[in-house]
Amino acid sequence: MNKIFIYDTTLRDGAQTEGISYSLHDKINITKRLDDFGISFIEGGWPYSNPKDKELFEYFRKHPLKNAKIVPFGSTAHPSHPASKDKNLLSLIKSDTEYITIFGKTWDLHVRDILKIPLEDNLKIIFESVKFMKKQGKKVFYDAEHFFDGFKANPDYALKTIRAAQEAGADLVIFCDTNGGTLTWQALDAIKQVKEKLSINDFGMHCHNDLDLAVSNSISAVKYGCSQIQGTINGYGERCGNADLISIIAILQLKMGYDVIPAKKIQALAHLSYYVSEVSNVAHRDNHPFVGRSAFAHKGGIHIDAVIKNPLAYEHILPSSVGNKSRFIVSELAGKSTLVVKAKELEFDLDKKSPQAIRIHKLIQELEKQGYQFEAAEGSFKLLLQKEFKKYKKFFSLLGFRVSVEKREDGRLISEAVIKLRINDKLEHSAAEGDGPVNALDNALRKALSKFYPTVSKMHLTDFKVRVLDEKCGTAGKVRVLIQSQDEEEDWSTIGVSENIIEASWQALLDSVEYKLLKDSRNK
To answer: Is residue 513 part of a domain?
Structure first.
């Protein structure tokens, strides 16, 4: 089995995602998680560009990783001074790592219009930068920035830049589709020509996803000799993102038979995806291949019936092989067979012809008539099943709550919630403010529960949707509230229906918290 090395750049390229900002603590935790998972190389960041990345390398000098190699990133020397005096290159040396990654200009457009230097000078900079790092005893990964655009525009010059890095002693050259605008057949044709003209048999691939082809381009390159694939967890990155390492790892190892990570670790793929999503404070994508909650979800009755008989009928792999699971969606399109499967997930035996199954099925139909939609609220549905099977555990009782909204003279809108609960025969009274009434109620509830159930602090709401069900009734109409929540392992949705939006929100919020507490109690 051939080995493919995964080079993760979540901490640099992923951190350039709009809306993502990692603290030093976040970066350290993600690095440790990637190391435990079996990633070969972890790009820690650009130590010359910011103090945070410099501190990261200082931390891992004192606390070495168990498996992965941590790698600093930087550019070739600035045109104004020699490599030996370039502060950027010197910062890479001070990181005290076995490997370093530097990028250089491949596209003549960048040399002329961005660096504004002669083309020959750029070749000299590449050569001297790589040579200097090799003299310091470093193993050098050379990122050929904008390689494919450069090759399209001026193939002869693009090849000269690669040759300069090779002759200087680069240990591996990585072809970068920095703009993400290269079609798969174009990338493979360019790689084929490079291999023929430079006798290069081993290289890396770094793709951006502006054409939604980053994964395709990356895995296709493996067939042409690529031994290192760069990317980010969940495809995070600037603009449309980078190549998604979650999909790449699963495809290479499970579909193509390559040795990518330790075999026993592949089952933690979904957990890794959720963990990085959680630390990044980004909602996990439902339709994420392999690891999304919808990746193995079945709604149509015919599909569900077939999967129950033989999962291969509608599932391309065993969901458990990546840490995911099949989901059978409860809706008007699914019958009592779905109830049987859902009950089995909770370790309940249910015969679809039994009076209990008939009763539950009728209850669901009645609730959907009232406006509930369990297709979008599996968390609430699982709680309903547990209540029907008398396995529901009550963690607390509501004695009452009050929510107020005050608009002040200065224009500020203040929301405050006061809640009274009975928890383990103790009265708990708490108050909290929030951005809105539901946020205030959520904060007050968590504040009251955190003393007794600390794990509630490890979940948060990722989505809040309200739909008016009786449009003709206007503001007096019944509303449906859907809340999506997430922790470090999974996400779940809950529902509430009422003529009062606060009451509907409370129902969904209550189910969300109870689902988390029940899940954690089962995992103990």
So the answer is: no
